[in-house]
């Protein structure tokens, strides 16, 4: 650095002080080297942390991928360990739930195929056997012949009903079923159902109680399908009730809902099986269900039909005391109301 020596306007010279700044450069080089080393260190630390973090995050995802591939190959007992309560844990629980649902569906499907095989084989065996008896004239009297013909007719109807149930459920699953909507009197529907089932109830010594409100509004629906819904529910109530009563009720709730109730004093349904009774192929008390007939399709068809009418079906039961089915249908004042409800 330098400073001039002056006296007013006269210049006498200057003073210069010189000093080497190499030390400063050395210090700057040292700081720069430290920064470079610190940068490399931070980079490798971050890289290592990232690798550890990515492995810890990807490990459960890889486990889920492996489990999903095993499930896809049919190993439905495979489960994923749920170690956290975050989104990954939620995904793991979803995969486990999927595996359980698929396993239950596979088991019920296998059971359904076994039941259907039995249900088809039994009438076919009767048909073949009694047809052979009639063809070869192996009967002693006309009464015996007529008895065999009655058995053939009964088993034919049973076989036809089973095939119809399978066909209807397949159409509903594919959305190909068509309904003939019109204004229907629910009282007429229930009276028709009761007239068709009263003989079965009488044969078992059951009492049917009817409580239907007067002047119920008309329902906009398919009369035959509505009758099918309640016919199935009432026949089930009679089939699984050994003694007591079967009650049928219908009432208007809040001017917007027509509530129908089918209740029995039968053997009831275990609580752990209630969530599954509307699933296709599902049968409660498998051995007894086989003795009473049926394929496990009736309630699945009923639920589909109720939903197609915009309704809701609910069930409650106590083993040994009975079962109660409630079906709620919305009241449609006009055709426009029905179309809006369908949307």
From TrEMBL:
Superkingdom classification of source: Bacteria
Annotated compartments: Cell membrane
GO MF: ATP binding; phosphorelay sensor kinase activity
Statement: the UniProt record of this protein carries the keyword Kinase: yes
Domain Histidine kinase residues, every copy: 115-333
Topology term for the membrane: Multi-pass membrane protein
GO annotation, cellular component aspect: plasma membrane
Xref: Pfam families: HAMP (PF00672), HATPase_c (PF02518), HisKA (PF00512)
Primary location: membrane
Reactions mediated catalytically: ATP + protein L-histidine = ADP + protein N-phospho-L-histidine
Enzyme Commission number: 2.7.13.3
TM regions (residue ranges): 34-54
UniProt entry tagged with the keyword Cytoplasm: no
PROSITE patterns reported for this sequence: HAMP, HIS_KIN
Keywords carried by this UniProt record: ATP-binding, Cell membrane, Kinase, Membrane, Nucleotide-binding, Phosphoprotein, Transferase, Transmembrane, Transmembrane helix, Two-component regulatory system
Residue ranges occupied by any HAMP domain in the UniProt entry: 55-107
InterPro entries: HAMP_dom, HATPase_C_sf, HATPase_dom, His_kinase_dom, HisK_dim/P_dom, HisK_dim/P_sf, Sensor_HK_Regulatory, Sig_transdc_His_kin-like_C
Family designation: In the N-terminal section; belongs to the phytochrome family.
Name recorded for this polypeptide: Circadian input-output histidine kinase CikA
């Amino acid at each position: 650095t330098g400073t001039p020596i002056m006296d007013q306007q006269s210049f006498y010279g200057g003073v210069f002080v010189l000093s080497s700044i190499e030390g400063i450069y050395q210090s700057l080089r040292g700081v720069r080297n430290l920064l470079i080393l610190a940068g490399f260190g931070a980079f490798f630390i971050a890289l290592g942390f990232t690798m550890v973090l990515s492995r810890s995050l990807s490990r459960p995802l890889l486990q889920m991928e492996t489990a999903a591939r095993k499930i896809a190959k049919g190993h439905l007992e495979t489960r994923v360990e749920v170690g956290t309560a975050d989104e990954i844990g939620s995904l793991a629980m979803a995969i486990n739930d999927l595996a359980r649902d698929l396993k239950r569906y596979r088991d019920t499907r296998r059971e359904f195929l076994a039941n259907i095989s039995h249900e088809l084989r039994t009438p076919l065996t009767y048909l073949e056997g009694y047809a052979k008896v009639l063809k070869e004239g192996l009967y002693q009297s006309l009464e015996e012949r007529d008895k065999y013909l009655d058995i053939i007719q009964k088993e034919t109807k049973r076989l036809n009903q089973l095939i119809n149930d399978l066909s209807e459920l397949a159409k509903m699953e594919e959305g190909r079923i068509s309904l003939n909507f019109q204004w229907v009197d629910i009282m007429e529907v229930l009276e028709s159902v009761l007239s068709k089932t009263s003989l079965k109830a009488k044969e078992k010594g059951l009492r049917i109680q009817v409580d239907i409100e007067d002047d119920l509004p008309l329902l906009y629906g398919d009369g035959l399908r509505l009758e099918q819904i309640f016919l199935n529910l009432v026949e089930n109530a009679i089939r699984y009730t050994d003694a007591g009563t079967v009650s049928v009720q219908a009432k208007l709730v809040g001017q917007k809902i027509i509530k129908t109730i089918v209740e029995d004093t039968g053997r009831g349904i275990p609580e752990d099986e209630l969530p599954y009774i509307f699933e296709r192929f599902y049968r409660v008390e498998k051995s007894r269900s086989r003795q009473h007939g049926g394929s496990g399709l009736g309630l699945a068809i009923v639920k589909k039909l109720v939903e197609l009418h915009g309704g809701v079906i609910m069930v409650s039961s106590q083993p040994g005391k009975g079962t109660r089915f409630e079906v709620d249908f919305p009241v449609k004042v006009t055709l426009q109301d029905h179309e809006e409800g369908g949307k």
